[in-house]
Amino acid sequence: MSLRERLQEDMKAAMRARESDRLITIRMLQAAIKQREVDDRRELDDTEVLSIVEKLIKQRKDSASQFRAGNRPDLADKEEAEIVILSAYLPEPLSMEAIDTLIAEAVSNTAASGPKDMGKVLNSLKPQLLGRADMALVAEKVKARLNNG
Predict the structure, then answer these.
(1) Exposed (0-12), middle (13-18) or buried (19+): which is 64, by Cβ within 10 Å?
(2) Which Pfam families does this entry report, sorted A to Z (predicted)?
(3) How far apart are CA 128 and CA 110, in angstroms?
(4) What is the rounded distance in angstroms from the CA atom of residue 84 to the CA atom of residue 54?
């Protein structure tokens, strides 16, 4: 079952169960997917849908931290609840050891020799890590590895 089919089934289940928060979040995700499809004038595959899910989660995390800083815990809680719902559509996260192994492989495969090669390494890692690791953390690890030689 593709991710889009799963979203459709989950939306129907949320309607039947009258889970309004879940339904609103799924509809928001579907709207973001549809908007991207209209912009690109083509149907998205699961990898591209995963990138949209990651983007929405990142937006929710940023909003939640802003709401907490602005003393609005009610709005922050709502954003965090949406993060939980959206996270269910991401694949199982990788362990730190697995990420380190993939970074080591990518560095050797791309023949990266220093910080100037960071983009090459990250581009080779992105398809493998999409939805399974925080790319900001991966970028820090790659940078540290390339700086240390």
Answers:
(1) buried
(2) YqeY (PF09424)
(3) 15
(4) 12
